[in-house]
Design goal:
The protein has 281 residues and is of the alpha/beta class. The protein has 13 helices and 8 strands. Strands 1, 2, 3, 4, 5, 6, 7 and 8 form an 8-stranded mixed sheet that branches. Helix 6 links the parallel strand 1 and strand 2. Helix 1 crosses helix 7 and helix 8 crosses helix 10. About 6% of the residues have low confidence.
Amino acid sequence: MESANVREVVKEKYGQAALRVKSGGSSCCGATAASGLGCDPITSNLYDATQTGQLPEEAVLASLGCGNPTALAQMNPGEVVLDLGSGGGIDVLLSAKRVGPTGKAYGLDMTDEMLALANDNKRKAGAENVEFLRGEIEHIPLPDNSVDVIISNCVINLSADKGRVLREAFRVLKPGGRFAVSEVVTRGEIALEIRKSVLLWVGCVAGALDENEYREKLRAAGFEHINIEPTRIYRVEDAREFLSSAGVDVDAIAPQVDGKFMSAFVRAVKLESCCGPACCS
């Protein structure tokens, strides 16, 4: 699928999710949208009550992530954090608390409906060190070397040009800056049609990278100290109803699927002495 087409599909899906939340519904996609079930196992139980209890309900309901980058990313008071694909703002608001009043938390999203929801949640939370930006993660509207930490929650896999996203992330990070995102990744060889079917369930738009390919793209962008840590491994039973409704013989594909799709926490660093991919190669 062409980049422009992927972008429009994502905008439509996430715009609809924001409107559902505003009307009192759920933001869930993937299996939930197909079956009407709850958000398990991908988007449920990612945040504990001590985190969600501090936030507007609509920020929590709008979460479409596959992990909780704010729980695993290092953030220090006074730092600048950027959330790529910030949605309803849950991770931005949590990050703002972590960096404190002397820090800043940016959220970047291309969906007008989500930005409107996020700004509403910002107002309800009384967060003065938060700013939501309109734009695409392939073209981050911030200057070079301006951010200490980049987080994202199951968004980069939705981009048709992941290499560009990672290069942009590297560009805006300060030397010594950290890349710390939750992401859906795959492990090992998987038949193309099966991969597409399962990723439609896991990530709403088929596009997750194999973990080794993710490492390669991070290195190509200039990052070092790369680590991919599985946080939730999906079993074939998790997707049985969705895949069956899509006409997939679940029992036949189980050996090729089980344990090969996962949420993971992806970490990398822009070294202090590195000014770009060329000097890190």
